[in-house]
Design a protein that fits this description.
The protein has one domain: Histidine kinase-like ATPase, C-terminal domain (Heat Shock Protein 90). Helices cover about 30% and strands about 25% of the residues. It has a five-stranded antiparallel sheet, covered by helices on one side. Helix 1 packs antiparallel against helix 2 and helix 2 packs antiparallel against helix 3. It starts with 14 loop residues before the first strand and ends with a strand. Keywords: ATP-binding, Kinase, Nucleotide-binding, Serine/threonine-protein kinase, Transferase. It holds the Pfam family HATPase_c_2. This is ATP-binding protein. One of its GO terms (molecular function) is ATP binding.
Length: about 140
């Protein structure tokens, strides 16, 4: 039987995981396995919001920066934090949504509506890191 790391067992520690997803689907699989480690597990709506948030951030990094250099997830009793690193120093730009569906423009506002905190920071190797936090 596999023992799952529970936040309740280690209250002073964060649960943290890192991956290098090649697609939004890879990132969603990573989020599901991360959420399953947490005790208590996040509610279904929180997990769905986390999946949507990570999927959007990873898809945007792949589309606009060409790659995701790292996806970090961490959680404590109060919040879940997401850090998506990519090689481009160009920050995300809010655009008018394209109702025809060909140019997007919906993702960045959605990220801001899902997260309680969003920041764009210089990345460790010249790109950027988009940080977002959700209430646990």
């Amino acid at each position: 039987m596999q023992h799952r790391l529970a936040i309740d067992e280690y209250p002073s520690q964060l649960v943290q995981r890192v991956c290098h997803p090649g697609s939004a689907a890879d990132a969603r699989d990573f989020v599901r396995s991360f959420a399953a480690l947490l005790r208590p597990e996040p509610s279904a709506p929180t997990t769905q919001n986390l999946l949507l948030l990570v999927s959007e951030l990873v898809a945007n990094a792949l589309r606009h920066a060409g790659a995701v250099t790292a996806l970090h997830l961490s959680a404590d009793q109060e919040r879940i934090e997401v850090f998506v690193e990519d090689p481009s120093p160009t920050p995300p730009q809010e655009r008018s949504p394209d109702l025809s569906g060909s140019q997007g423009g919906f993702g960045w506002p959605m990220v801001h509506s899902l997260a309680q905190h969003v920041a764009v920071l210089p990345g460790p190797s010249g790109g950027k890191t988009v940080q977002a936090a959700l209430p646990r």
